[in-house]
Amino acid sequence: MTSSTQTHPTLKLTYFDITVGRGEITRLALTIADIPFEDERVSFADWPALKPRMPFRQLPVLTVDGDTLTQDVAIARYAGTLAGLYPSANPLDAARVDEIVLAVEDIRALLYGLLKIPEDDRHATGEAISATTLPAALGLLDARLTATSKGSRYHLANDVLSMADLDVYAIVALIKSGWLAGISTTAADVFPKLS
């Protein structure tokens, strides 16, 4: 991880005022590395007025010395690189991190897909996902964690804390949050190493 004495760009993360979701791993990476950033939290009530000014009409957005970055995976990779949590100097190690991040992105897309279906169907669909798809996906991550762990050190990619670990932490936090209809808050409990 980086030292707080290093000079960093001026950063502003704009994301919803929630601690789960697509912007959280960027917050975590910058915080863990003690990299200063402005954390602009947007309320859901204020979002409709702000949305037209966002490049892709979505959040998160990271402003870097006045330049705007969009798309959560790109933003997280940038923050992870600044924080020393993304091994950009080694292509194979970077690919291992990306592999986990993209597997988590598949889970995230499935979970956020609940928000796009009719409200009356969300709970039943969430329960079905909790009973089948979610345990299978988390089981694959757990198997990878078991395979890559050394002793009591549990890291999903390589031997050190990386963006892969933060992303899994964030998806487990989303599952446990109760924020998504029908998704069991205990779905990840059978995989204690992921928690």
Automatic annotation (TrEMBL):
UniProt cross-references to InterPro entries, sorted A to Z: Glutathione-S-Trfase_C-like, Glutathione-S-Trfase_C_sf, Glutathione_S-Trfase, Glutathione_S-Trfase_N, GST_superfamily, Thioredoxin-like_sf
Organism expressing this protein natively: Aphanomyces stellatus
Domain (GST C-terminal) ranges: 90-195
One Pfam family recorded for the sequence: GST_N
PANTHER family (UniProt xref): GLUTATHIONE S-TRANSFERASE
Molecular function (Gene Ontology), one example: glutathione transferase activity
Domain GST N-terminal: 9-87
CDD domains (alphabetical): GST_N_Sigma_like
GO biological process annotation, one example: glutathione metabolic process
Name of protein: GST N-terminal domain-containing protein
